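hey
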C-alpha cells in the first residue's frame, strides 16, 4: 500500500473535509488522526508525533499564522503541509519561512494531487511513501484491491460513483 507506516495528523475544523481526506488516505494505507483545533493538535502531538501534519490555516478562533510558529517554538511542529482555501503568495511565503512547513496546497484539490504533495514532503524528510500510478498519473488499483464497496465504481478520472443497492424505480438490487 502507498502510505503504509505513515502517520498523518489532519488539523482542520471542517468535519466534512476531515472525513473525506481521512477516508481517502486510510484507503491508501495511511494511519490518520485528526484534530479540530490547534489546542487538540497540541494534545495529539504530545501523545505521538506524526510523520506528516496536514494543517488548515483558518480554524475559527485559531489561525495557523499564529499557532504554527508557536508549535515550532515549543518543538512540537512536525513536517507540515498546509492545505487551505485562503492561500496568497504573501501567506504562503510566511508559512514556508517555518522550517517544518514543507509545502502548501490550495483548496479545493484533487486527492491525487494531495497525495503527490504529501509524498514530496515525505521525501524532503527522508520518509518513504510510494504512489503507484498509470500513465495518466492516477492511482492504479485492480478491482480486487480497490477498497470500493458494493455499489461503488471508479471512473477513468478517479471519481467514485456511489449507487444505491436497490433501485428506487424497479426495486431490483443493482439495477440502473
Amino acid at each position: 500500500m502507498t502510505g503504509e507506516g505513515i502517520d498523518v495528523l489532519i488539523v482542520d475544523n471542517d468535519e466534512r473535509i476531515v472525513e473525506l481526506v481521512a477516508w481517502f488516505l486510510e484507503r491508501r494505507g495511511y494511519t490518520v488522526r485528526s484534530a479540530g483545533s490547534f489546542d487538540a493538535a497540541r494534545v495529539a502531538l504530545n501523545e505521538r508525533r506524526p510523520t506528516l501534519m496536514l494543517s488548515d490555516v483558518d480554524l475559527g478562533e485559531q489561525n495557523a499564522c499564529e499557532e504554527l510558529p508557536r508549535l515550532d517554538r515549543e518543538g512540537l511542529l512536525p513536517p507540515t503541509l498546509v492545505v487551505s482555501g485562503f492561500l496568497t503568495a504573501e501567506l504562503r511565503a510566511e508559512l514556508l519561512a517555518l522550517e517544518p512547513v514543507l509545502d502548501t496546497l490550495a483548496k479545493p484539490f484533487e486527492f491525487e494531487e494531495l497525495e503527490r504533495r504529501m509524498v514530496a514532503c515525505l521525501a524532503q524528510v527522508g520518509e518513504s511513501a510510494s504512489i503507484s500510478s498509470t500513465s495518466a498519473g492516477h492511482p492504479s488499483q485492480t478491482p480486487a484491491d480497490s477498497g470500493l464497496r458494493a455499489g461503488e465504481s471508479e471512473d477513468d478520472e478517479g471519481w467514485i460513483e456511489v449507487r444505491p443497492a436497490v433501485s428506487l424505480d424497479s426495486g431490483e438490487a443493482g439495477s440502473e
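The chain has two domains: 7-133, 141-176. The longest strand covers residues 101-106.
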